[in-house]
Amino acid sequence: MQFLLLLIRCKKTLDDKKFGILIFLDISKAFDSACFDIILAKLRHYVVSEPFRRGCPQGGKSSPLLWNILINDVFDLSLPSNCHLQAYADDFVLYFDHEDLNLFSAFAIFGRNLCIYLDRLTNQVYLKIRLKINWSIRYSFGLGNYATIFDYMINIHSINENFKR
């Protein structure tokens, strides 16, 4: 369902003649770094009475559910109106769009602010669920009918895309 929503958002960007960038991010060792005290508190909040004594191991049967319970609050965090966040297990997609390519490619909307957005998101996630995020970039690509080169750095990883008409 989340992937379908992402496709719909991309199609709308193209239909509206906007420009967009998708960045696929991974949280390193996500399940291993999950704060189990917060998961337990959330389970108690949702009235789960069984005692839990173990963590959230990678590949465990209950790990996806426990992970979803943990990251649920991430989607309530404050992001700019042209920035959207979606999750697939421990992977996230950060999606930006804007109608003005000059602003978009001149870093006013995307470039300079990307690191600010990710830093803000990282800080908010840590404050909310005590999860230390180590972003690693899996993929990035642009949407729109334009030719420009984007070159950004996040956590010493380069996002360097050459978009063609």
From TrEMBL:
Query: Can you cite a GO biological process for this protein?
Result: DNA biosynthetic process
Reverse transcriptase domain location, by residue? Answer: 1-165
Q: Which SUPFAM superfamilies match?
A: DNA/RNA polymerases (SSF56672)
Which Pfam families has this protein been placed in?
Answer: RVT_1
Report the protein name in the record. Answer: Reverse transcriptase domain-containing protein
| Source organism | Dermatophagoides farinae (American house dust mite)
